[in-house]
User: Fold these one by one.
Assistant:
Number 1:
Amino acid sequence: MKAYNGRTLLLEIVMVLVSLLFLAPFYFLFVNSVKPFGEIMSDAASWPKVFQWENYSKAWELTRFPEAFFNSFVITVLGVLLIALISCMAAYRMVRANTIFNQIFLLVLVAAMVVPFQTIMMPLIRVISELGLMNTKTGLIISYLGLSTPMAVFLFHGFVKSIPLEIEEAATVDGTTRIGVFFRIVLPMLKPMLMTVIVLNTLAIWNDYLLPSLILQQPSLRTIPLATFSFFSEYTKQWDLALPALVLGITPVVVFFLFLQRYIVEGIAAGSVKG
């Protein structure tokens, strides 16, 4: 029993040390966000001598943070909702109508997951330009929909298999339509995986810099990552303003993640066991 307790204590100490290692970047981010530029350059690891909160007000104004936040919020919410809804409906149909076409289509989606974004980046921008969707939130949302749907369908596909068909048949006998069966019976049972897809795609879209930088060229359409990157140029790097902007940008998504992170474990565990 003593040996077991000793191993447990050692494991807990190791886990605490690893947790502190992962939290170290947040420490550097915060303490340097309230330092003047010279102090950041001289000693980035030290505790601030004086907390310079004016950095946040300057970053708020220079990034036009409310506008950037609104752009990021609209793109993320609409993109995630479309990805989640279309993917779960597609996966449900592919499982219940297990035709050869649907099987091949699933293989195509799985194959698309391993294609690096850099290989399709230029063709994608060409298509968006030809459709007249450059410099529009719509073009960016459609791009996210096409890029993120394969993974979401794959996750939902394995989870839908765990739903007993008899429940749907009973609802159909009671007079429920196919659409009603999906939204009243199937969709509530998909909640763990649905929340997993929502959380993962929210983190990916909110923090993405590359795709918005290719599609959104107008300053009024800048998302938070684009607005933050404005503090970096070829010859100057305004760390005293960029770091507060980063804190402002990641705070909403960190709160969102902490609020819903338990669904990720539940969804992945349920999908791996039941699927």
Number 2:
Amino acid sequence: MKEFLLTDSDFKQIAAIVYQACGIVLGEHKREMVYSRLARRIRVLELTTFKQYLTYLDNHKEQEFSDFINALTTNLTSFFREPHHFEYLKSHIVPKLLVSNKSTRRVRIWSAGCSTGEEPCSVAMTLHGLFPADWDVKILATDLDSNVLAKAQSGTYTAANVNGLEPRQLQRWFLKSKDGAQFKVKPELQQGIHFKRLNLLQDWPMKGPFDVIFCRNVVIYFDKETKDQLFTRYYNILSEQGYLLLGHSETIGKEHSEFKNLGKTMYLKVSYGM
């Protein structure tokens, strides 16, 4: 017998709240995940059932809602995850930007769903030294989960977190603690990254345009209607000939003719109908 009662009605209500708030679809196969993650909140609040928790959530939305969403969003990431994207950024995208953006000397890259910060840091490491010193190159890193965003802003990682990096990268971009257990991103790398909490389904305060958007392993949690809306919004905020990079199991359907499939979950913004 489980510690807390989670009825079908409770689960459907939780799924509906999450979908309405951030477009994430929680199917029946996610029931155990929902139970284990929200059970922690129930223990902290000293409640006894999920029904009680839902009542508490309804009565304390300002205080509890962030913890509720944080508990149910997945944040699996690593440095240079899906390395072909970073290789393509360096070998194809940057050379094109050096030509297309020569008059403005401005480059903007968005890491949408940055989690604990490994992705935007990997982008920053990739871009280092590729643009002239007088160019204005900035990376926006956003996430829905305030907890992981705080970790990303701290720039502090464990030895396990940086395990996949090369020794020269660690030496160049990280400060190692005396006991070797922690690695902190050097200010030089982090100064070009701006971290901000953002719900992708709500209004976006930034105007763009962005030259590259990394939105990897995010839309996999959305239903088709929400994905289509998001892809349209990405199209509108991308610069002409801008790039959208998705996660390894994510695709843009053929009905979205405004994006050209470059292969390996990489897409180029094109004019409608082309």
Number 3:
Amino acid sequence: MEKAYKILALQEGISNNDAKDLIDSGLVYAKGQKVVIARALMSENTKFSVQKLPKPSVIFEDENLIAVNKPAFITSEKISEIYKTPLLHRLDKETSGVLVLVKNDEFAKKAINEFKKMAVKKVYVAAVRGILSEEISVNEPILTIKGKGGATSKISPNGKMAISHITPLMVVGKKTLLKVGIDTGRTHQIRVHLASINLPIIGDEKYGKNRANRMFLHAYEIEFLGYKFRSFLPDEFGSLGFEISKKFEI
């Protein structure tokens, strides 16, 4: 028996640290199951499959900002490092879609003020387990607790106001593709709100208690200060059975 990351490092011809990062990012599978603990003891004959990480791409750039199409499995902070530009906001590592970076302090102050005034329009697409047949809004306060293992959020009367507007787009079997507009931007807001109405996001292990090859939450559109950026749905959403073209619009 040997630690998973060491076996993976030998198999892929990479460093132990790189192997740990791949496992921690949720990109490594063995016998059809995601490997979740890098130090887990496994047979030295274990064969791993590694999901390839898509590369980020620039949607738009000018003197004020860079709008990036962020893949799942990469942190917002890593995107900031790649483009050597500060973040305006963040997306969870597991979430794909539009991420905005700011290039000068003057514009950053204006943009941050728009977020504070809740004047930024944000639209996400989520694939969930369960069926929703009509529009619904969730107005439940969210409390976020930050610990060593990262942030965890929950609905609580002691939390901050959080509002999510949810619209069904497509139903396949017992899965629904949803459009989610948010007036607020609390940590893990969409994940917590959807789980609270028994519509957990597919692949959301933390709040939805289910596994998939990724978490199916995508930052589809953001609009503020005259700018409007969109990131079309990744191909993985089609793998769930939803009929999605290359430029599926909502």
Number 4:
Amino acid sequence: MGDAIMRTRERLEDGVPRPVTETTGKGPLRRLRAPRRPRLWFEILLIALSYWTYSLVRNAVPEQRTAALRNADWIWRVEQQLGIAVEETVNHAVNSVTWLVVGMNYYYATLHFVVTLGVLVWLYRSHPGRYAATRLVLFATTGVALVGYYLYPLAPPRLMNGGHFIDTVMVHETWGSMASGDLKNMSNQYAAMPSMHIGWSVWCGLTIFALASVPWVRVLGLVYPALTLVVIVATANHFWLDAVGGVACLAFGFGMAFVLYGRLPYALPRMVPVAARRRVWLPGRA
């Protein structure tokens, strides 16, 4: 009798339409991992709002000049003891070639933003399935950097007490840094650790190297962060250890993306399936 009731119940359930989805798994985490096509208006708004917030928070961090100078002296002493204090030598060597140092000043001031935005646009257009996860890496990297600015104020080499570093922007009267000349009051000068010039440039470089199809473009992806490292040191805006901090923040960003998406951003599908997450009702068996 019980078997007959069970078979009757199964037949009734078979007659009910079932939802068929292209994704498997349950819960909000699975929904987060599903690739979604980015919306242009939302991305423009998000990027603008995020950069405004980043600038506001970064510049709102107390400058803590005394602590920042003390930390700079400590880093410089440690580098000298380890025999890796090369920043002053690079700074003076590049400063002796006017056209080179002026070019580096403008590189420092502009490419940081231009290349990063260019890579975001390229991802949006050519790799929409990977865009959200890769953008998350960039945002998480920048977010954790703000914590570093608050917890570890650091003066750049050009502002060290008794240092022999050359502020290349001031000397050559070029517009090359938000922390020099007439623009210095618009930016926190003691937020050098970690270096987001390195964090963002390595993000750009890895993204280009991993996803570009043209060999020479992939090579440029590797050259860009290496050249950026030379620039931040040569212009006396950062110790090279600030670059290590930037890479550490980027590693945190990739970790966040891996946790939320279950894989590295570059391993996600390039395109978003047209019917992704669409529910289709199919008739049950008779």
